Amino acid sequence: MNTHAAPGLELRATPRVLSIAGTDPTGGAGIQADLKSIAANGGYGMAVVTALVAQNTCGVRAVHTPPVEFLRQQLDAVSEDVSIDAVKIGMLADVAVIREVRSWLEANRPPLVVLDPVMVATSGDRLLEPSAEQALRNLVPLVDLVTPNLPELAVLLGEPPAENWSEAVEQARRLSAATGVTVLVKGGHLTGESCPDALVNSHGLLADTVVEFALPRVETSNTHGTGCSLSSAMATVQARTGDWADSLAQVKAWLHDALVHADDLEVGAGNGPIHHFHRLFAGKAPVGQEFSRSLWQDIEPTRTAIFDLPFIEALGDGTLDEAEFSYYLAQDALYLNTYSRVLARASALAPTESAQLFWANSARVCLEVESDLHRTWLGADTAPRKLGPVTKGYLDHLLAASVQGSYAVLVAAILPCYWLYADVGDRLHARFLARGDGSVHPYAAWLETYADEGFAAATRQAIAFTDEAAGNASAQERAAMRTAFAQSSRCELDFFDAPRLHAGASS
Prior knowledge:
Structural class: alpha/beta
Radius of gyration: 24 Å
Strand content: 5-15%
Oligomer: single chain
């Protein structure tokens, strides 16, 4: 599948995203959830109201639909003043509203449109009259991505709901083939330990291709507004990345953690909302399930030792000697050449398509993105040709894990290079921002690379795959995973300390 955006989409660091949807006075769904999702994923949110909904966490009480003339006035007021990078469409109450939104889309042609077809409630109740359902079906070909839940996917096709994941993917294929639109099919309504989502595209040069991501299902009843939040987040992140697969990987990791922290909010007596801003309160430090959390707890002495290193302290406050930083980056550049092969090996061993795609993409990013940072700092000819002893020891450990043939042990060995870097980058970057003195940090580019939300999202995905692998592993294999994770963590500690000992040595 070509997962990249249309050529007309201009990527922006802070996309301007318009939500066209109904309201939720308790803030968990509708436009209120959309605005939170857009902000949480780095966008600037705008809103046009299609319906005023009297609802709470226990259900909907009444719906008031303003005149369509006023709807068009809202739409024109925004589009005549603001350049819109992406549009998310949610609740469209009736035929007149759907036709008005369609007319505005045809006149303005936004560069990116995501449709969440609000047609069937979680309870199974139909939310639209049959005539409005047909009008909404006719709207689908005008958008770039449609994000139905399983009952809505069935209604769009005029078929019974899918009873399992394979049936859902096949229905998504038929909808994509019929409309020419990419379909995000969601497994939230199914049961099981895993919660899959997939991008399905049945048209173009690479037809009948599915890109699937799965994370462990979060046990919580606080899922109100999940569909609204997912679709508005996808519109926002796609306007930043231009790649649907990358966008789904980031959004799924964010939404997973929003569900993990949903119970913290304690909002309402029914099905409460997800925690859109969990990262604001908990920091960007990734969160895993029981197994990975125990791994993280096991290495607490190592993590403490890392932050006590003179190298890390000086890197954080900007006083690090340039020779030490250059030695560190040069060794890291050499490390990445082999590390990318280890990631490729993880892709080859991975048991699912989503894991294969993630590790393969990680190998590519490892070389293309991070190596570019090293070239920026080091230039073309300054990297040492010889591995330092610490670098060689670390790579020997990873290569040994990669040839043993155990996918679970290999991903556990790989994980610290994600998780510890995300932790160090996040904490040092936050410490620098907290200074607030306007000073220029000489190593700001490094801090921003590892404090970046894209890297944090990749780290969460790596954690989730490690938890998934542990769930399928034997007790003996899980013990080996713990050993591999702990050893890689100690290697990271030594790697950060090596510049102090070897920066002056000849390479």
